[in-house]
Design brief:
- With 263 residues, the chain is mainly alpha-helical.
- The chain is built from eleven helices and four strands, in the order H-E-H-H-H-E-E-H-H-H-H-H-H-E-H.
- It has one domain: Hypothetical protein af1432, CATH 1.10.3210.10.
- Helix 7 runs antiparallel to helix 8.
- The longest helix has 21 residues.
- It is globular.
Length: 263
């Protein structure tokens, strides 16, 4: 028999394997993707014409809603990224065939003309956002959420006119929390709740809206006044599934979101 009992040897080997796995799991100078996005979204808020902190507050509301709906960690991870990136389509370049990041900082507003023109402009805007999310390496659930953000429960939204449960669940969640946050920032908590009540069943999934309204009744909107909401939101990412990026990946994300020079 060797110098160590067999059980001790197995434990030592297991510890060595675990150490090697940990070394290889996170490359040198790795950045947590959540931290990277939280650094970038203030510029995205500005480019999208939102109040400062909009993406962070929308993400917080989305994650609290997902928790109340008993959505599991793996699915919540995709929702976390989708909520932070939901306005990515607000950044475009002058020439859609160009891929020069320095040019991609001009807002693409929805056209104010006929319905067909508005629909076409919105389709281009959300498709651009979905492309950004895909190029940055996020899953299809993020791209689909960005694409369907402005679809309405009654089928009268943009750009396709999806209705009811044909709208992906994450898009229904983020559309709802996005709308709540905008109304809250512009008009205050009571008006925001009134807005969600009024649009439930037309713009928003009534079942999801009822869960959100119940959370609001229990003080959810007051939670947005947390001293460091960004840190709170960071901790809402499921830690055991957290994604890390090396320098090359981080640059790809910055370039894909067309924010490398704006952040």
């Amino acid at each position: 028999m060797g110098p160590f009992p067999l059980s001790d040897t197995r434990l030592r080997l297991a510890a060595m394997r675990a150490e090697a796995t940990a070394r290889n799991a996170y490359p040198r100078q790795a950045t947590r993707v959540a931290d990277l996005l939280l650094e970038l979204v203030p510029a995205l808020d500005e480019l999208a014409g939102r109040e400062p902190g909009h993406a962070v507050r929308t993400c917080y509301l989305s994650m609290r809603l997902a928790e109340a709906m008993s959505i599991g960690d793996r699915d919540r991870l995709g929702l976390f990224y989708a909520a932070l990136l939901h306005d990515a389509g607000s950044v475009s370049d002058v020439d859609p065939s160009s891929a020069r990041p320095a040019m991609m900082r001009r807002l693409m507003p929805v056209a104010s003309g006929e319905d067909d023109e508005r629909r076409a402009a919105e389709h281009l805007r959300v498709r651009r956002g979905a492309q950004f999310a895909t190029r940055a390496g996020f899953g299809p659930e993020v791209a689909v959420t960005v694409m369907a953000l402005h679809e309405h429960w009654d089928g009268r939204g943009l750009p396709i006119g999806l209705a009811g449960e044909a709208i992906p669940l994450f898009a229904r969640i983020v559309s709802l929390t996005h709308g709540l946050e905008i109304a809250f920032s512009e008009e205050g908590a009571p008006a925001a709740v009134t807005t969600i009540h009024a649009r439930s069943g037309t713009w928003y999934d009534p079942q999801v809206a009822s869960v959100l309204l119940a959370l609001c009744a229990n003080g959810l909107l007051h939670e947005l006044d947390a001293a460091d909401l960004t840190s709170v939101v960071r901790d809402l990412e499921p830690n055991w599934l957290a994604r890390f990026a090396d320098e090359e990946d981080a640059d790809r994300i910055r370039n894909a979101l067309m924010l490398s020079g704006a952040a």
